[in-house]
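Let us walk through a complete example step by step. Step one is to write down the protein sequence. Step two is to encode the small molecule, zinc ion, as a SMILES string so that its atoms and bonds are unambiguous. Step three, shown after the inputs, is the structure prediction itself.
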Amino acid sequence: MSSYHVEPIGDLIEHDATGQADCVCGPQTRPEKGDDGSVNWIVVHNSLDGRELHEGGR
Ligand SMILES: [Zn+2]
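Step three: the predicted structure of the complex.
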């Protein structure tokens, strides 16, 4: 089983992408099934400058 980390580029903080989903930004981990039936874990990090909030607001 492997995991991928998706981090915001140029964020204000340094994200912990060492494999555990215990980064300070509270990343969301979701499984993604590959073609061969193996499961990859996608760790989606949140930017702390509020970009997502602005983008999803309207
Ligand atoms: Zn993070």
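Step four is interpretation. Residues 15, 23, 25, 27, 45 surround zinc ion (CB under 6 Å).
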